[in-house]
Predict the structure.
Amino acid sequence: MEKKELRDLPALDVINADKLIENTEYSYVSADFGFVNNIKKTIVRMLHLNQPYRVHEGRLAIVDRGYVHLLVNLTEHIITSKHSYIIFPESIVHPLDFSDDLQARGLVATPNFVQFTENDDFFRHYLVNDANTDIALDDTDYTKMDLYFKLIWSIVRNGEFKQEMVQHLLMSLLSYYDDLRKRSSMKEAEHITRGQEVFRRFIDLVNKNSKAQRTVDFYADKLCLTPRYLNTLVRETSGQTMMNWINRSVILEAKVLLKHSNKMIYEIADELDFPSASFFCKFFKKNTGMTPMEYQKS
């Protein structure tokens, strides 16, 4: 089966080179910046539901109407009207469903396009600071976000791409989003339980380490808890054991590699730190009901 040598949802440079998204009334793409004014009419045609993808650059989106249902790094999200959403670089995004009336806009920028701190771009800053991703907007905040998106769109569609102007506007938009995130975090902190907080930190660690670390003891040590206590908290909060979550993360990584790379199965097994291709195949079938090759061809 011939596949393009892509591991993921195409990055901006690939989108440009292969003309996967043309500059139309609904979208604009340059080497370092992209804006989609109607996600359903553009990005959706590049995706298949129930198939995971990895994204290189960070993305910021706003849903104006309808909803989109996603798994992002093992966490389920239903993003509804008047919500903004951020996706971190190198995230695994698994689209599940979207409404017929979905109206959403999004933007993407390479790491060097907007510097949020002296040595870090905005999206990396969020990764370090464990920020919220899905933020509900009241009418005032939605109106402001809407104006930012409309102004940036009007500039990128007005002939020659004015990079500095877009960079400054984007910097202002992201700073405003950061303020929204801080306010949302303060409200959330008033209601989150210890179990929910520990579970969130556990999932963050799993997303970052499951390729190489698959023992309960590793994650318990990182969180300074006993394995038994951590497993109890995770099970009470999510209804699943720690090993269930660790295995789900490994399966997501495997699916991305099987669908979006030219790697042989033994190479994928090696990348995911399995002792052999045979062991990887047994693990994959036990957790999905399919062999890696069957999934690859599906």
In short: The chain has two domains: 12-189, 194-297. Residues 23 and 203 are 38 Å apart (CA to CA). The radius of gyration is 20 Å.
